[in-house]
Design goal:
This protein is 31% helix and 27% strand. Helix 1 crosses helix 2. It is built from 5 helices and 6 strands. The chain has helices at residues 38-45, 50-69, 91-101, 117-122, 146-152, and strands spanning 2-7, 12-21, 27-37, 106-111, 125-127, 130-138. Strand 1 (2-7) and strand 2 (12-21) form a beta hairpin. The protein has a 3-stranded antiparallel sheet. It has a 3-stranded mixed sheet with strand order 4-6-5.
Length: 168
Amino acid sequence: MKLTVSKSKNSASFYVQKTIRKPNGCVTSVTVEKLGNLTEVTAKAGGKDPYVWAQEYVNELNRREYEENREIIVSYSPSKLLKKNEQPTLKPWEKKVIRDYGLEQIVVCTNAGLSSKTNRKFNDKAADGVQIRSFITTQSVKQLPEYLKDFALAPADGISPDASGHLT
């Protein structure tokens, strides 16, 4: 978001604007909030310079928007050799994210290499009956025992493998 000041010969109007992309691909600015004219903003600023106060207000809005919309993605490669003193678990990193960023709603998606019982237990958290953290393990169907392949590929709701093994 940005501060836009529209000046006329008698006054100035302060707006908080944001650049967006429309569904048709065009980029345009939209007004998020009208802060008011110079007199109103001076009153809101409480003795501060109205231009400085308005810019600080926009900076705070940007900080809040960033906090609400941030997404943290970590890539892990099981084929990569671990460096000395590196742990083969995400648990310490997850604790750090929870502590440093205040995030509680986490979904950990990993391959079977990090799917230990302690990792699954650590990420199976619910609060007031609502799941707040989950742990998803992915594994190649080809590597499953035969009875699990049969279960995983059993027809359900019209989805079943064709002769080549692809789901249809």
